[in-house]
Specification:
The structure holds 2 protein chains of 2 kinds. Chain A is an all-alpha fold. Chain A has one domain: Formate dehydrogenase/DMSO reductase fold, CATH 1.20.1630.10. In chain A, 72% of the residues lie in helices and 2% in strands. Chain A has a two-stranded antiparallel ribbon with strand order 1-2. In chain A, helix 2 crosses helix 13, helix 8 packs antiparallel against helix 9 and helix 11 packs antiparallel against helix 13. The longest helix of chain A is centred in the last third of the chain and has 33 residues. Chain A is globular. Chain A starts with 9 loop residues before the first helix and ends with a helix. The mean pLDDT of chain A is 94. Chain B has a single domain, classed as Alpha-Beta Plaits. Helix content of chain B is 33%, strand content 12%. About 18% of the residues of chain B have low confidence. The chains are: A mainly alpha, B alpha+beta. Chains A and B meet through helix 5 and helix 6 of A and helix 1, helix 7, helix 9, helix 10 and strand 6 of B. Bound molecules: iron/sulfur cluster (3 copies).
């Protein structure tokens, strides 16, 4: 089936070449980092995880979000999603590949990564995270491929594959739950130490994943003559709306607990993220614009998706889902991880600024993900077109 | 190979049990990787089982005594009388353990250092501190917690708890994920962001202790390398006869450290987190 990825119009190749350029630059930057060490990043003793792990966290959500298309179709037999479940599965593959790349980019000793398997440690959440992420990646490759192959031959997919499809649903939930547990079980990191982290992760994932699929779907309609279908589109919008609103609700609960209880530990990070934290006569606020960006983008995205006039207009709909996706990225892909390190365990404030090298590696991983996504979607859509003709 | 496989099956079995909700197993799993001997010792002590532990855990007091548990008492008052002593301790530790002195602040590595009272003890009142605490700083280092979150978080057992209570590291196994740094509530851990040799004078290093490679985490090891040679920790040695630092077995009722703990009011850092630090402070 891969031959389908080798045929495409000029735009297709230009787009891939564009992504490829950034991938090449990022590869060079990674070689630099590999040779020198992570000292080439902006991370420090106090902010010991940076862009890499925060992107990883966000992308686990994007991968899990695909399940919002798989579940209605396979569990509730919601036929309108029939054509697009494959988009959810392929998105998960691309997102998980990015996750694994970000983990490797973040390791101080990447060649030893397999130690996690050689010395299995069930009390470490990272051990479990690796198992569920790789498991989910495997399931999506398997299910996506088998089902697409069957579709191409215009036969029913084999029965046994449904077992794996059903297993993949709880797996999707588990990847983001376990990723939340990386954070929410650490004593002394008050911002992360909250039972609502896992549900909030899931809510934002179920908005961000489908928002990206909707956005890509709208683009595909223009460039690849592939229509998601009106009914499916409306349903995805509903899912995004509910998930984005629940995420906002959970965040407000965090605010309530922090500010009403007035316990400094519960308040400091929120203060740092949204208003700036004063410490020793200096106000630290380098993330404040991002977090307000999140608030504004999510609020306007929700509005655009909720108002009937804008929802029915593809352009506004696209802008709305892009706003939600980008807004949630600011929240989870920037604020959540970086904010958790402020203040430090010794009540100091150290702000993190990524370096150019680090940013280029990050961009390159994103480009790799979109490269994989483009190729996979090209294959899926070519198969669709083949069946139609 | 076969042994590995068996080990894996065992762990898989335990995890399944945990999944089935056997709270005792979960409890055992999350308390970290106790060496088997210590675990067995815990199990055979009747009446001092999980219940007692749970009831005291919240107050951050000691766990059930079993075997050796090394600890330290730092007398902040004595350091205040002689401010040069703290610097001597830091210097002793860092030169014995080849801790690099790097120019970039972001890449800094430290095993023992000075910090303000409010930084070391954020949960204690520091509104109108007495003059001593206002003016002077406190020496801090890894607490060698009896219930160490860093050990719980480490995915490779590169950070582990010895049966003498020391939380030690295997630099050759560490993958540099820095999960332990996020997990430690005391900021006790440093990461080698670059080759530590950039900050070492290779002609002056201590050849008896390894230098680290870049990409791994390190921290105070309670001088686990010196103890078998009958030496005191380097920092303790640097305090001379002042008794500003006392090191010893917390589980031995006749040890000097127990005497000091009996005679003085001591505090631990962040006891509410249940990590059960083995380092105590007299302020
Ligand atoms: S102080 Fe930190 S590094 Fe040391 S044992 Fe406790 S949790 Fe681990
Ligand atoms: S950085 Fe090393 S010691 Fe720390 S958690 Fe990762 S593998 Fe374990
Ligand atoms: S006990 Fe040893 S390793 Fe720890 S601070 Fe003192 S000298 Fe350094």
């Amino acid at each position: 089936m891969f031959e389908k990825a080798l045929k495409g119009n000029n735009y297709y190749w230009i787009w891939l070449a564009f992504l490829g350029t950034f991938m090449a630059i990022g590869a060079l930057c990674y070689i630099r980092q590999y040779n020198y060490g992570l000292g080439l990043t902006g991370m420090s003793r106090s902010v010991s995880w940076g862009l890499y792990i925060s992107q990883f966290t966000f992308l686990v959500g994007v991968a899990a979000g695909g399940v919002m298309l798989v579940l209605p179709y396979y569990i509730h037999n919601y036929k309108a999603f029939g054509r697009i479940t494959i988009l959810g599965e392929f998105l998960a593959i691309a997102a998980l590949t990015m996750c694994l790349m970000f983990i490797i980019a973040d390791l101080g000793q990447p060649l030893r990564a397999l130690n996690v398997l050689l010395h299995p440690t069930p009390n470490s959440m990272l051990f479990w995270d690796m198992i569920v992420l790789n498991g989910y990646l495997f399931l999506n490759i398997l299910c996506g491929w088998v089902i697409l192959t069957a579709e191409r031959k215009q036969v029913k997919p084999p029965k046994w594959i449904y077992i794996f499809v059903y297993i993949s649903i709880p797996f999707a939930i588990s990847i983001h739950t376990v990723t939340a547990m990386l954070y929410c079980g650490l004593p002394g990191r008050h911002f992360w130490l909250s039972a609502i982290i896992a549900p909030r992760f899931l809510a934002s994932a179920f908005a961000a994943g489908p928002a990206l699929i909707l956005l890509v779907g709208l683009i595909l309609k223009r460039v690849a003559n592939f229509d998601v279908g009106k009914e499916a589109k409306d349903k995805i919008v509903t899912i995004i709306l509910y998930a984005a609103i629940i995420n906002a609700f959970f965040l407000m609960l965090e605010f309530f607990v922090g500010y009403y209880s007035n316990i400094p530990g519960h308040k400091h990070t929120l203060e740092y993220l949204f208003f700036g934290l004063e410490h020793d006569g200096h106000v630290y606020n380098n993330l404040v614009p991002y977090l307000w960006g999140f608030v504004v983008l999510c609020a306007s995205g929700i509005a655009l998706l909720a108002i009937p006039y804008t929802r029915r207009n593809d352009l506004w709909l696209g802008i709305g889902s892009a706003a939600i996706f980008f807004g949630l990225w600011l929240d989870k892909g920037i604020g959540f991880v970086l904010g958790g390190f402020v203040p430090t365990p010794l009540e100091e404030v150290v702000e993190y600024y990524p370096t150019l090298n680090e940013i280029m590696i990050t961009i390159a991983v994103w480009c790799t993900g979109f490269f994989i996504l483009t190729v996979l979607y090209k294959i899926a859509i070519s198969v669709e077109h083949e069946i139609e003709s | 190979m076969d042994k590995k496989r068996r080990e894996f099956l065992k762990i898989a079995g335990i995890s399944t049990l945990a999944g089935l909700g056997a709270p005792a197993v979960v409890d055992r799993l999350i308390t970290g990787s106790y060496p088997l001997a210590a675990r067995a010792a815990r199990e055979v002590t009747p009446g001092e089982g999980a219940g007692d532990q749970a009831s005291t855990a919240g107050h951050g007091s000691d766990t059930v005594p079993s075997g050796t548990r090394y600890g330290m008492v730092i007398d902040v008052r004595k350091f205040n009388e002689n401010p040069a002593m703290a610097e001597a301790c830091i210097k002793a530790c860092h030169s014995v353990h080849n801790v690099p002195d790097l120019a970039e602040k972001n890449n800094e590595i430290k095993w023992i250092w000075l910090t303000g009272y409010g930084n070391a003890f954020p949960d204690h009142s520091h509104y109108h501190k007495d003059e001593n605490l206002e003016k002077n700083q406190v020496l801090v280092l890894c607490n060698h917690c009896d219930s160490p979150p860093c050990v719980r978080a480490c995915p490779t057992k590169a950070t582990f708890k010895n049966k003498d209570g020391i939380v030690a590291m295997d630099y050759h196994r560490c993958i540099g994920c820095r999960f332990c740094m996020a997990a430690c509530p005391y900021g006790a851990r440093s990461f080698n962001w670059q080759d530590p040799r950039n900050g070492l004078d290779m002609n002056k290093i201590n050849r008896e202790f390894p230098t680290r490679m870049r990409g791994v985490v390190e921290k105070c090891n309670f001088c686990v390398d010196r103890l078998p040679r009958g030496l005191q920790p380097a920092c303790v040695e640097a305090t001379g006869a002042s008794k500003a630092m006392v090191f010893g077995d917390l589980n031995d009722p006749n040890s000097e450290i127990r005497q000091v703990l009996k005679e003085n009011f001591t505090i631990q850092r962040k006891p509410a987190l249940g990590t059960q630090p083995s380092v105590f402070f007299i302020v």
